[in-house]
């Protein structure tokens, strides 16, 4: 009579537990793989979620505990904004502003009944403490008690309460070495100064303020809405929430709004003027970006955990065959495999969730302690974590299903005798699946380009990547055939990989999946950062020191500033910036025969809902060729009374700037030609047309160059590609004198031998401010919060890839123990074991890195293509960037760490268990039904006799 199901499963659980305890090493290795995948996914998900504050946290950071909204004056006219005020667009031709009192009355009429306004001011200040000084810092002057309590919670000290008191961010306190009671000199935009006392410090949040002043200290717009020193801000208190309709009405008066109610319940894109004409975008709290992350984590889990468990199950086929030889039926064998997978998966997933959550907490806590607002709070998504833990349990079950089914069908005598059990069929099945995935992926990507459909690129690329990874046995076999000239350990490792392709393919798949994730994250993020920074153009080579003089300076002041630069910074030969001093606007005219450049087409391609025409005429209303339209980098801003006028230089300055083609520009200036900084301004005859224009009301005042008002002069020219709006035209000194234009010193440029540190720059800034009243900045490349997120994701993926590689190699080593014994038997050096382990790890890591890199670049390119075609047509402003230096460093680290760790962890000697080749005495085992069956050794010898 057949045993009842409960008894059968109880027996399976008992046997699975004993098998796991008997093979602690392989069980622990599989659990480690699961923990790595689940832990990495949980940590990545938590950090991605934590980078966007929850509505409650965002409301507290921006509005304190009870304020309903914050209103910020922008300018006369209509303002458009995003719901969280992340993006604000404002523009107006109005010249007059109402008084602050009149505007407050207008706001109260638009707000719900019972609302009250708490006045505040915001502005930029420069801070000096001891021998250090900062550049412009965001300052808020407000009473942060009462309804605003909690906005800037002190880490030490207290909030600023009376005039002359200030609270600073932790980052600023660390930067200037401030403590409670320290004195700080602040200078506002109107050059008014005040010495204040530091009374506390708070952690940086998404609120931009680095300095919070008590009312009546320095930053105050007075009775105006805006002054050179400050602009008006109000906090709305009351019991009635400020709705999106209220926000839109206030936008029409020239102010932007952060509303607690709107942040908690954002309006649909169709109700947001800023988004209504753009392709739909994900909300800050949307689950759409994380759905792709969870899907990717699930796929990674299947690719990594599945092969790792398959290697373990392959090794245990002999044990299962022994159980079958003792009378177990197919269902019991399947139950043993599945129960073992369930237990291993549950332990590994639970451990991974704990480790992932702990790692995310440690990263966010460390950054917050350093005053970094990248992760203002730890958000652990319970639903995502539960899903990942469930996947960590489910994937081993799925991976164990084929071995379980195979265990129920396999002939025990064939397994115990070591005869093949059908790898050809599995190889053909893998090849067929790989071809099917490659074909379906190519069809999806091709369809995406043909329609176009942005949502088809990533699925198609993922399918193709899976097909490419499954094709790994071909590459392994080719490597094995080319192993003849390699050292012994590497030759053995390659031939072992080619002989045991199923085991090697599983290990390679583990590494390739993790590397593919790493590469896809790097390609996608680098492309996004390049897209964001496309309009950020440097004014000088990275690290160069730029000095801005606020007004006319004498030769002594310029010499003092140069001495301060060379004393405190690694600056060599500072060059003075000379600019044409005239009230006129002197600028080059574009060649009317040229078409409008892509960056000047309005509206920008990045927000269009229809394709750009093939060619837009330069005089079209849709063309805005002013250089300011394509440059986001506006500091420092050298100018004279005419605005940003031509630089006057004999070649010294442009060489100091060290921008591309600087030497060509210097030679042109030495030859007496002007330099224009875009091809659009170089006419077909090799000349430029320079216009002297008066852009204000009335007649121009008498001054240098005003006799040329209204004239257009033709001059010989050369062109270089410098997109920065700071450089429209550079003229040689002789030509400037011919035009009757004087040159005024507006700043200095200091080429450097290395990029200065922040502390060095602060000390030099204080020195030039004291000697010449000047300000200083260091030219830096465009930075994005995505860069840090990418670094964290790459680190996680690299850890998973390295750990998965080591685990796979250890599983393979356990599986190939008998081969190692053979090496000892034929006289191999005992130390070959360590070298062989390192070589096996290197082979697996190298093949996995190559396959994973190709697959990851494909997936990353598909993600970029999805963004490119998001609006239904090609958007050429989205670039495909493969950060080869970063990827090379990461992949070399994975490969090197895998080899070195395998070299350290591998046993120094090969096993010398010669009993594996000795005949075993026949033993029998009594089953519960009284039958006596042969043990493993007896079954082995019997199968040999049958074969004979």
TrEMBL record:
Coiled coil (residue ranges): none
Subcellular location: Cell membrane
InterPro entries found in the cross-reference section: ABC3_permease_C, Membrane_comp_ABC_pdt
ABC3 transporter permease C-terminal domain boundaries: 293-412, 792-905
Domain of life of the native organism: Bacteria
Region spans: Disordered: 914-948
Keyword Translocase among UniProt keywords: no
Biased composition (Polar residues): 923-932
Membrane-spanning intervals of the chain: 287-311, 332-358, 378-401, 431-451, 457-483, 504-529, 790-809, 843-866, 886-906
Keyword Nuclease: no
Protein's UniProt name: FtsX-like permease family protein
Protein's organism: Nocardiopsis codii
Lineage: Bacteria, Bacillati, Actinomycetota, Actinomycetes, Streptosporangiales
């Amino acid at each position: 009579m057949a045993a009842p199901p409960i008894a059968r499963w109880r027996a399976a659980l008992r046997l699975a537990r004993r098998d796991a305890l008997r093979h602690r090493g392989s069980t622990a290795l599989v659990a480690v793989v699961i923990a790595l995948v689940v832990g990495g996914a949980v940590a990545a998900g938590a950090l991605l979620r934590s980078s966007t504050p929850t509505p409650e946290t965002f409301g507290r950071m921006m509005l304190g505990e009870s304020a309903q909204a914050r209103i910020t004056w922008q300018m006369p006219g209509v303002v458009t904004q995003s719901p969280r005020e992340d993006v604000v667009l404002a523009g107006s031709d109005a010249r007059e502003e109402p008084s602050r009192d009149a505007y407050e009355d207008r706001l109260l009429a638009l707000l719900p009944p019972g609302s009250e306004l708490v006045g505040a001011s915001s502005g930029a200040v420069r801070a000096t403490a001891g021998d250090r000084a900062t550049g412009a810092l965001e300052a808020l002057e407000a009473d942060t008690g009462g309804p605003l309590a909690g906005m800037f919670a002190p880490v030490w000290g207290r909030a600023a309460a009376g005039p002359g008191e200030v609270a600073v961010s932790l980052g600023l306190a660390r930067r200037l070495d401030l403590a409670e009671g320290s004195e700080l000199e602040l200078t506002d935009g109107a050059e008014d100064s005040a010495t204040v006392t530091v009374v506390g410090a708070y952690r940086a949040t998404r609120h931009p303020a680095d300095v919070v002043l008590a009312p009546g200290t320095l930053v105050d717009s007075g009775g105006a809405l805006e002054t050179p020193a400050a602009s008006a801000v109000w906090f709305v208190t009351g019991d009635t929430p400020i709705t999106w309709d209220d926000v839109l009405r206030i936008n029409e008066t020239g102010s932007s709004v952060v509303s607690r109610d709107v942040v908690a319940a954002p309006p649909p894109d169709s109700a947001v003027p800023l988004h209504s004409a753009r392709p739909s975008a994900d909300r800050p709290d949307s689950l759409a970006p994380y759905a792709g992350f969870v899907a990717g984590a699930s796929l990674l889990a299947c690719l990594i955990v599945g092969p790792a468990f398959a290697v373990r199950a392959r090794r245990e086929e002999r044990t299962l065959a022994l159980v079958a030889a003792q009378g177990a039926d197919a269902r019991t064998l399947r139950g043993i495999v599945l129960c073992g997978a369930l237990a291993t998966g549950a332990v590994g997933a639970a451990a991974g969730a704990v480790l992932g959550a702990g790692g995310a907490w440690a990263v966010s806590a460390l950054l917050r302690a350093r005053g970094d607002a990248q992760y203002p709070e730890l958000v652990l998504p319970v639903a995502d974590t539960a899903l990942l833990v469930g996947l960590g349990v489910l994937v081993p079950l799925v991976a164990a299903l084929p071995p379980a089914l195979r265990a129920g069908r396999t002939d025990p005598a064939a397994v115990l005798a070591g005869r093949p059990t059908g790898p050809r069929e599995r190889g053909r099945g893998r090849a067929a699946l790989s071809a099917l995935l490659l074909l379906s992926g190519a069809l999806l990507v091709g369809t995406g380009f043909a329609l176009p459909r942005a949502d088809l690129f990533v699925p198609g690329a993922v399918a193709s990547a899976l097909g490419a990874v499954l094709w790994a046995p071909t590459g392994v076999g080719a490597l094995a055939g080319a192993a003849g000239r390699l050292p012994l350990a590497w030759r053995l490792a390659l031939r072992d990989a080619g002989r045991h392709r199923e085991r090697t393919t599983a290990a390679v798949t583990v590494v390739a999946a993790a590397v593919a994730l790493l590469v896809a994250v790097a390609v996608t993020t680098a492309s996004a950062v390049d897209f964001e920074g496309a309009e950020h153009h440097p004014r000088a080579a990275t690290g160069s020191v730029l000095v801005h003089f606020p007004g006319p300076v004498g030769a002594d002041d310029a010499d003092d500033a140069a001495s301060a630069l060379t004393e405190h910074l690694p600056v060599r030969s500072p060059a003075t910036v000379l600019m044409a001093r005239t009230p006129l606007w002197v600028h080059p005219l574009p060649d009317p025969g040229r078409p409008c450049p892509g960056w000047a087409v309005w509206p920008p391609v990045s927000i269009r809902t229809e394709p750009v025409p093939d060619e837009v005429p330069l005089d079209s209303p849709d063309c805005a060729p002013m250089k300011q339209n394509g440059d986001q980098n506006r500091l420092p801003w050298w100018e004279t009374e005419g605005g940003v006028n031509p630089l006057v230089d004999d070649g010294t300055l442009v060489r100091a700037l060290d921008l591309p083609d600087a030497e060509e520009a210097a030679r042109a200036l030495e030859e007496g030609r002007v330099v224009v900084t875009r091809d659009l301004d170089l006419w077909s005859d090799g000349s430029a047309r320079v216009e002297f224009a008066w852009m204000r009301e009335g007649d121009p005042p008498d001054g240098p160059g005003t006799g040329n008002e209204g004239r257009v002069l033709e001059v010989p020219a050369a062109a270089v590609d410098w997109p920065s709006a700071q450089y429209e035209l550079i003229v040689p000194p002789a030509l400037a004198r011919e035009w009757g234009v004087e040159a005024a010193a507006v700043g200095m440029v200091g080429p450097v031998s290395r990029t200065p540190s922040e502390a060095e720059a602060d000390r030099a800034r204080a020195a030039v401010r004291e000697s010449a009243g000047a300000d200083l900045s260091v030219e830096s490349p465009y930075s994005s919060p995505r860069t840090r997120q990418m670094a964290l994701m790459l680190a996680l993926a690299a850890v998973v890839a390295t750990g998965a590689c080591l685990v796979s190699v250890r599983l393979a080593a356990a599986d190939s123990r008998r081969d190692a014994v053979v090496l000892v038997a034929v006289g191999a050096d005992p130390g070959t074991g360590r070298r062989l382990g390192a070589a096996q790890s290197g082979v697996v890591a190298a093949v996995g890195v190559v396959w994973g890199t190709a697959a990851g670049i494909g997936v990353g390119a598909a993600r970029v293509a999805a963004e490119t075609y998001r609006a239904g047509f090609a958007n050429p402003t989205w670039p495909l960037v493969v950060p080869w230096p970063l990827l090379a460093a990461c992949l070399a680290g994975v490969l090197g760490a895998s080899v070195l760790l395998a070299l350290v962890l591998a046993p120094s000697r090969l096993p010398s268990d010669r009993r594996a080749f000795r005949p075993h005495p026949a033993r029998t085992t009594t089953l519960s039904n009284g039958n006596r069956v042969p043990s493993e050794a007896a079954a082995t010898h019997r199968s040999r006799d049958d074969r004979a």
